Amino acid sequence: VNYSIGLDVGGTKISAALVQKDKILEKIKMPTESEKGRPYVLKKITEAVDSLLKNVDKAEVVGIGVGFPGLVDVKTGTILKAPNVPGWNNFSIQKFLESKFKLKTYLANDVRAMALGEKNYGAGKNYKNVICLTVGTGLGGAVIINNELYCGKGNAGEIGHIIIVDDGELCGCGNKGCLEAYVSSRGINRESKKVFGKVLPPLDIEDMARKGNAKAIRVYATLGRYLGVGIATLTSVLDPEVVIVGGGIAHAGKYLLGPAVEELKKRSINRPPKVVQAEFGKDAGVIGAAHLPIMGGLK
Ligand SMILES: [Zn+2]
Q: What is the distance in A from the centroid of ligand 1 to the CA of 67?
């Protein structure tokens, strides 16, 4: 058994891929269009998987792994709560795909799936204790302890919601002062408004930073310092060897991570971990999802 199918479902995009270990043999990308309803999205997913399976002997496919943003029940493969993909709460995607394709199917939170990809094949492969963060619309996290993804009662790793400022900015979760309220697209938009007087797309700010624009560098540095505060807290609790940062906003690389490391060094009582960019970029989610059937899913 050689291959597996990975599905990375996001609020705006879905990637489906035929994967062999860390190699993507074929990938299909499509918009999620969750506003058109779950049956419509499921039909598109089904067609994509069908098309991927066309080119292989099905007996060689170990199963399907799905990464989905939100709270999930890994035992039943059920999406419990997905604020960014409306209409999927309490739906078992595992049951649906297993009955459609007769292949073992496993579900995990999308960032946990990405962490599996980075841990097994990417920036985390030489380490035992790894923290993964994705900075995009929100701030997702995953914790690997002694080579195993730590799930707690099922959903450990909600690092975006550790409080870094008492009574600070409002977070999407309803709380105030969460790390995610500062280090996310919401955070970068706020800083952009402060510094430029208007909201600029993160990629434009990144471009300007690369060209040496001091204001743009300052925007990323502010986010980076908050990120460093968060990582210092995590380091005190978990003392990992490496912290891997992915997601759209981490694309800015050193402009975000440089100030984060400086802040971390100032605040950490432990020897600080390495802070590195995710290796697989946009493909980490789908590669990690495809790893789920290989490991028999999360416990
Ligand atoms: Zn929050």
A: 21
